[in-house]
Write a structure and sequence with these properties.
The chain starts with a strand and ends with a helix. It is α/β, with parallel strands linked by helices. The protein has 12 helices and 8 strands. The chain folds into 2 domains: 143 residues, Methyltransferase, Methionine Synthase (B12-binding Domains), Chain A, domain 1 (Orthogonal Bundle), CATH 1.10.1240.10; 127 residues, Cobalamin-binding domain (Rossmann fold, 3-Layer(aba) Sandwich).
């Protein structure tokens, strides 16, 4: 297998150099940057030529164009290509997908795969951290476009307990809840129990509290956090995240509700708004 430059790829495909460059930045064509030059493996050029992987994806019954968006994003994140990662997300949105799809079906799987590859020793920890940093910045760019207009349904306080460092997950869920018309107070990760409870106590128009836990080591702190919240407020508390295995586990933590994913949380909050 030989690595060739984008100019050579353009010659082989019979297209302009900038067209090949766009394929790379959109994640359509795998490439590696060395110094200031991008290189593509000759085998990948042949695969691209024969299959034309989703250059113009076929429309599905929903009217949206389907494509391996998560894989494309993952390739750009692994390369540290922030501009390319943004272009992948922009392409997914232009294809008719909404912000929930981009966050939960593109960003989340790409990050999960990178995490798994790091755990397996395939990627360095710096790659995983760099990818998370890029996604956090992309959320800042994209999420602001989808702010709900109109009267707020109420406030939701959201965060992670002491010992839980995954603020990125909280940020993604917070954006999706905001998109549904809620005001969200995002406390981020590693929030001490008393400070979390105080934030709930002093916030206006709080309708619900969400506590996210992705690592088992933070479950004890989550229990203490929920107990502290219950001492100052009677609003329902939701518990979710990879470390909370179901409704029974959430109840053991002291929560009123369990949510398995962000879509379930949004649906439950909207039901709560209708009851109120």
């Amino acid at each position: 297998m030989v690595d060739i430059s984008l100019h050579d790829v353009a010659d082989e495909l019979g297209v302009h150099y900038m067209t090949v460059y766009r394929y790379v930045r959109q994640g359509l064509l795998p490439a590696t940057k060395r110094g200031r030059t991008w290189y593509v493996a000759s085998d990948d050029v042949e695969t691209f030529r024969s299959s034309r992987v989703a250059i113009a994806a076929e429309p599905n019954p929903t009217g949206r164009r389907s494509a391996p968006w998560a894989q494309r994003l993952e390739s750009r994140l692994v390369e540290g290509d922030e501009r390319g990662a943004l272009e992948v997300l922009e392409s997914a949105l232009r294809a008719g997908n909404d912000v929930s799809f981009v966050y939960l079906d593109v960003m989340a799987p790409a990050l999960a795969s990178i995490g798994e590859r790091w755990a397996a020793g395939e990627l360095g920890i710096h790659v995983e951290h760099r990818a998370s940093g890029i996604v956090l910045r992309l959320i800042g760019l994209i999420g602001s476009r989808f702010k709900h207009r109109g009267v707020s349904k109420g406030a939701v306080v959201m965060g992670a307990p002491a010992g839980e460092e995954h603020a990125l997950v909280i940020s993604m869920v917070a954006d999706l809840v905001r998109h549904e018309g809620w005001e969200v107070h995002d406390l981020g990760a590693n929030m001490p129990a008393d400070a979390f409870a105080h934030a709930v106590e002093v916030s206006n128009d709080v309708v619900a509290v969400c506590v996210g836990v992705t690592v088992p080591q933070a479950l004890s702190a989550a229990r203490s956090t929920i107990a502290a919240i219950k001492r100052v407020s009677s609003v329902p508390v939701y518990a979710g995240g990879a470390a909370v295995g179901g409704d029974e586990a959430a109840r053991k933590l002291g929560a009123d509700h369990w949510t398995g994913d962000a879509r379930q949380l949004v649906g439950s909050l909207n039901q709560l708004a209708r009851r109120n």
